[in-house]
Amino acid sequence: MRILSDLTNILVGLSGLFGGAAVAFLAYYIQARIGKKKHLFDERYKSINNKAKAMSWNATLVILILAWAIIIIFEGPSLSFFVIMAVYVLHCVIYGIMSAIYSNQE
Predict the structure, then answer these.
(1) 52 lies in the same domain as 99
(2) Same domain for 14 and 55?
(3) pLDDT value at residue 29
(4) Which residues cross the membrane (predicted)?
(5) Helix pair 43-74, 79-105: axis angle to 10 deg
(6) Would you give per-residue pLDDT tens digits along the chain (106 residues)?
(7) Are 62 and 101 in the same domain?
(8) What pLDDT does 106 receive?
(9) Are residues 53 and 26 in the same domain?
(10) Is the pTM of this model over 0.90?
(11) 38 in helix, strand or coil?
């Protein structure tokens, strides 16, 4: 009976995750269509958006390092440690790849 309860909880959690992603995608699609019709995406918008994404990227890097340290202190090398480590490594690898791509374009 416990296995059925655990499976139900997992399915409910995943349905919430995928449902939220679907709603976010739909909202993004509607906003993009309206913005395109109203010509909202000019150079000023793109500049502000790029700066905001860059600062968000920097904040995410700091947050990942802090979360990594907290996990090491309280849990040691457990599954969550390796998940955070994988996210951090992917974060840095993607940053390096995108930096190389954009520097070659300019």
Answers:
(1) yes
(2) no
(3) 92
(4) 12-30, 54-74, 80-102
(5) 150
(6) 677 788 888 888 889 989 999 999 999 999 989 988 888 888 888 888 889 988 988 898 899 889 888 988 888 888 888 888 898 889 889 988 988 898 888 7
(7) yes
(8) 72
(9) no
(10) no
(11) coil
CB-based contacts of 88: which residues, under 8 Å, 6+ apart? 64, 65, 68
Task: Please check whether residue 61 is in contact with residue 23, taking contact to mean a CB–CB distance below 8 angstroms.
Answer: no
Cα–Cα distances in angstroms (integers) from residue 58 to residues 63, 66, 93, in the given order: 9, 13, 14
Hey, what amino acid is at 98?
Answer: M
Q: Contact at 8 Å (CB) between 35 and 49?
A: no
Specify whether 52 is located in the same domain as 100: yes
Same domain membership, residue 99 and residue 57: yes
Phi, psi of 40 (to 5 degrees): -85, -15
* Domains identified in the chain, total number: 2
Same domain, 46 and 84: yes
**Residue 79 domain boundaries:** 42-105
CB proximity list for 75: less than 8 A, separation 6 or greater: 81
